[in-house]
Amino acid sequence: MFVRIFAVLAVSLMAHAAAAHEFERCEKAEIESVLEALTAAEKLALRAAVSIGDTPEYRRWFGPYSKQNAADVRAAFKSIHTALRDVEVKVVCANIGEEDCDESMYANVWRHEHYAINLCPSFFRMPPIHAYSATSREMENGTRAGTIIHEMSHFDIVASTDDICYTRTTCSQMALQSRRVLTRNADSYQYFAEDMAYLPAFE
Q1: What angle do CA 92, 134, 144 make, to 5 degrees?
Q2: ∠ at Cα 78 (128, 182), nearest 5°?
Q3: What's the CA angle centered on 9, arms 92 and 105, to 5 degrees?
């Protein structure tokens, strides 16, 4: 049973002034996991933004490369990074049956309810960055930090992404084999950003 905690915690993000995040229905350990994921997600989004180019990683998640598509992806990552750096995020830790959570869902948002993210129980069973190798089966659905990027990208004032495909296997097949352009797919942003974490020098 969740202990109801309604708290505003100050978190220092990089060199900027502290951003306050609001937590509802979250236990202490859940709050700590989310704060870790938020901090990692901000770093991931920035690294992803500066890593956009005509690379195998780009084509794996976003499909055929073009300068315009790449510019759109770069701008989206910059918006995601800015939001994670600067805004107050409201996090609701929901039980199954609450906030549209079910057994298969990790998190959800309403794109017009800016910066409010509902986290389902499955979210807390996802791995943190670097818990497993990038190619392990445990990474098939991504990480907690990657899920934060996924959900943040949905907001209409951030990147206004959609859910075109889910899972690494399905989305990479769609981009590489079907050659679909997936610059509006939330999971593509998640998986590209996560892959950037496994390149040298990420902390």
Answers
A1: 5
A2: 75
A3: 20
Segment 26-72, tens digit of pLDDT? 999 999 999 999 999 999 999 999 999 999 999 999 999 999 999 99
Report the CATH fold assignment for 22-197.
Collagenase (Catalytic Domain) (3.40.390)
- Find the range with the poorest average confidence among 1-5, 72-76, 142-146: 1-5
Q: What pLDDT score does 199 carry?
A: 77
Across 136-155, b (16+ Cβ under 10 Å) vs e yields eeebebbbbbbbbbbbbbbb
Phi, psi of 169 (to 5 degrees): -60, -50
Q: Rounded to an integer, what is the distance from CA 87 to the centroid of its chain?
A: 15
Query: What single DSSP character describes residue 199?
Result: S
Radius of gyration of the chain (CA): 16
Q: How wide is the angle at C-alpha 94 spanned by C-alphas 143 and 195, nearest 5°?
A: 10
Return the domain boundaries, the chain: 22-197
Residue 37 CB-half CA count within 13 A: 29
